[in-house]
Amino acid sequence: MIQPRKQINNIYGYVRVSSEQQVKDGSSLDEQKRIIEEFVQAKFNRPVDKFFIDAGVSGMKDLVDRPGSRDLTDIMDRHDVIVTTKLDRLARTFTEMVNMIPMLEETGITLYFCEMFGDTPVVLPKSQKSKGLEAKLDMVRINNRNLIANLAQFAEMEAEMIKSRLAGGKIAWAEKGY
Question: Which of 1, 12, 105, 178 could disulfide-pair with 173, CB 3.0 to 4.6 Å?
């Protein structure tokens, strides 16, 4: 099993729902927080230091255009851990996710999608010791990037299908006079 670097400064949770109905119900945000809290307690034997929440905000928006994720990117630092339940909670576009990985690696962040991969991190801090060919042929990093890229493509495709269904539903309601 891949272990994150031993030093951990802060553990942050990130939760997001896209619809106002989910915000009103509260169930999805609360459920995501509960899952992350249980994961962090089991994995690190400590509580989440802070949650960043985007309530009623589309994952199709860039991280820096969402208030909660913007606050997270402003505060995260070397040796921090970010935990979210699934990839599509963090990003819904292929480009955003693929561009985020090197930034997290360089910053020294460990990222978990706890519902998708359990206690296996999907992004690890870039090793400062590895140089040259060894750094370029880090197969764990290469495999993680490929996996995340594929998952991000599916998340973006799913988001497009959702938008299409919603648009079709609106047209059908409009045709009925609503």
Answer: 178
